[in-house]
Amino acid sequence: MKNTKPIGLLIPVIILLIVSAACAFSFDLGGQQETAEPTATSLVVNPTPTSEPSETAEPTSTPPGSISGKLSYPSEFIPPLRVVAFRVENGAWTQKYIYVDTILNAATYQIDGLEPGFYWITAYTVPNGDGAPSGLAAGYSQAVLCGLNVDCTDHSLIAVEVKPGMVTANVDPADWYAAENSFLPNPAP
């Protein structure tokens, strides 16, 4: 009697050999390795759902933005300033603000951590014995955009838009020439 194996067992072995050979071929490219150019991708990580709701889960939030600009003062020096971003909605202050204090002769500022939205920017002199009067104010106003010359008579503040995760630059509170009380008072004197 002849020793024969059932052909039904040989077929899976043959398929396994073919698949193995194909995989080996796809990884061996003659010593060359294919590379792809890096591309920008976004990764969304979804947590694994649990059977019970979590009390510590926080809602997703929009990343904050920033405002930055150059500082000035009508003198030979720039006194320490308090630069305030007033949150504005529908052309009115919402009673929300955030500020940064600068040091003597600081030429720039940046306010971080701002919710996306619109802001008025005003700088106030801060007393520290450097000779600058306390409480003077300069704004980022229409007069700044006009060039701050004698013909620039509109001193209304400009609502600056802050976008999520972005820095809104070149917001220079340089209008030191507006009439007294043209801008909001310093909220944190």
Low-confidence stretches: 9-57
**CATH fold category name of the domain at 65-168:** Immunoglobulin-like
Derived from helix and strand composition plus strand pairing, the structural class reads alpha+beta
Computed CA radius of gyration, to the nearest angstrom: 32 Å
CATH architecture of the domain at 65-168: Sandwich
The CATH class of the domain at 65-168 is Mainly Beta
Element-level helix/strand string: HEEEEEEHEE
Biggest beta-sheet profile: 5 strands, antiparallel
Helix content: 10-25%
How many helices in DSSP terms?
A: 2
- DSSP, total strands: 8
Alpha carbon gap, first and last residue = 108 Å
What value does the average pLDDT take? 77
Shape, please?
Answer: globular
- Which percent range describes the beta-strand content? 25-35%
Characterization of the model:
This protein has 189 residues and is α+β, with helices and mostly antiparallel strands. The chain has a domain of 104 residues: Sandwich (Immunoglobulin-like), CATH 2.60.40. Helix content is 14%, strand content 26%. It has two helices and eight strands, in the order αββββββαββ. The longest helix is centred in the first third of the chain and has 21 residues. About 26% of the residues have low confidence.
